[in-house]
TrEMBL record:
Name of the protein described by the UniProt record: PDZ domain-containing protein
UniProt GO BP: proteolysis
Taxonomic lineage: Bacteria, Bacillati, Actinomycetota, Actinomycetes, Propionibacteriales
InterPro entries given in the database record: Chloro_Bact_Ser_Proteases (IPR051201), PDZ (IPR001478), PDZ_sf (IPR036034), Peptidase_S1_PA (IPR009003), Peptidase_S1C (IPR001940)
Keyword Hydrolase assigned: yes
Species, as recorded: Propionimicrobium lymphophilum ACS-093-V-SCH5
GO molecular function, one term: serine-type endopeptidase activity
Length: 383
């Protein structure tokens, strides 16, 4: 895997997209009870790994579910085996790819699904969010490609990629809608190791809703709805990978899961139905944007916001749209394009709905006065 310190975006690139890049804090055991993880593996430049955890606490609406508990510390014993693990067969690699991308000091790693022979690939948005230099490797034959984000729907955690120079690829085979009780197999790039692993279970629920860490700066949570809830016990790195039926047909794209160190049998996985994934891919390819689906890279403002979820500017990046428009540290952005910003997440959602090149009309509180500032948004340097 390439050195994450080479050709990486800087912390300022993250800040400049209107995203608060918060320092990492180790949660207490009490704080992580009831949490979800997005199944993303992230590698530090030194080679260590950690899991990107969801919010605390988290609610799950799936009927009668056991309580979800996360370990206070990441297990490091490689001999601990997932009892849900099953043997990987060649059929599980068809149309499946490993996805990796650069963060400022880390490498994000997940899984993807080949939807067309010319290189349209789906993965989770959280795998490629705020990254550069996306690399994709076929799990079937090892061919590698650079990739671009064509578009994404962060509200359903889906990103659609296009592999550069790809042709003649084998694609996944989509299956019909499953039934509760059907046996399922989730497959993915376990812990970002570049090797497929598989875990088995059954379909428990066809309309699960889960809360995960917000894609809007990590402020609060985002709710993902309409998911398949399963007992397949997926692990970090499975993000964006396939969940199969026993005919090796893909019925969903694995997105999130629970972790519990005391009873591994109670782990749950959640997948977005494959038909919905393909609908999003078709919409992206057609260029049909709406308030949730965006095509291309996001709009770029160029500020850091308060870690207290306030729309208060804590940093202005030189040479960015915010700097050029005269925004200052301490400014409180209370409205953008007529939409109130009661907190930082509100503001980031409004920025996310804009396009590069748009004129943004900001209402700013500065020194007890309200002023109007016009900003010309540009394209973000990160995905």
């Amino acid at each position: 895997m390439p050195d994450a310190t080479q050709s990486n975006p800087t912390r300022q690139d993250f800040v400049a997209s209107g995203f608060y890049y918060a320092p990492e804090k180790k949660p207490s055991r009490a704080a992580i009870r009831g949490a979800l993880i997005v199944l993303l593996a992230v590698f530090l430049s030194a080679g260590a790994t950690f899991w990107l955890f969801g919010p605390r606490p988290t609610t799950i609406r799936t009927g009668a579910q056991p309580s979800q508990v996360l370990p206070a510390e990441i297990p490091t014993d490689p001999t601990v085996r997932n009892p849900h693990s099953i043997a990987v067969t060649p059929a599980m690699a068809v149309g499946v790819v490993y996805v990796s991308a650069d963060l400022p000091t880390k490498i994000s790693s997940g899984t993807g699904l080949v939807l067309s022979d010319d290189g349209i690939v789906s993965t989770n948005y959280h795998v490629v969010r705020q990254t550069t230099n996306i690399r994709v490797r076929s799990a079937e034959d090892g061919r590698t490609y650079s990739a671009d984000v064509l578009g994404y729907n962060r509200y359903e955690d889906v990103a659609i990629l296009k592999l550069r120079g790809a042709s003649g690829l084998r694609t996944i085979v989509a299956g019909e809608e499953p039934y509760v009780g059907d046996q399922m197999i989730s497959v993915g790039n376990s812990r970002g190791g570049g090797v497929l692993h598989a875990t088995g279970g059954v379909l428990l629920d066809k309309n699960s809703s889960v809360n995960v860490e917000s894609s809007f700066g990590g402020f609060g949570t985002d709710e993902l709805t309409g998911l398949y809830g399963m007992s397949t016990a997926a692990v970090p790195g499975y993000s964006g990978g396939p969940t199969f039926n026993l005919n090796m047909q893909v019925i969903g794209m694995t997105t999130a899961g629970t972790e519990e160190d005391e009873n591994i049998e109670d782990r749950r996985s959640f997948a977005l139905p494959i038909n919905r994934v393909r609908e999003i891919a078709t919409q992206v390819q057609a260029g049909n944007e709406d308030e949730k689906l965006r095509v291309g890279r996001p709009a770029y403002l160029g500020v850091a916001l308060s870690s207290e979820n306030l729309p208060v500017v804590t940093q202005v990046i030189p040479g960015t749209p915010a700097d050029n428009a005269g925004l200052q540290i301490g400014d409180k952005i209370v409205e953008m394009n007529g939409k109130a910003a009661l907190n930082a997440k509100d503001l980031l959602q409004t920025i996310a709905a804009a396009n590069p090149g748009d004129q943004a009309e900001l209402t700013v509180e500065r020194a007890d006065k309200k002023i109007q500032i016009t900003v010309s948004l540009t394209e973000s340097p990160v995905n």
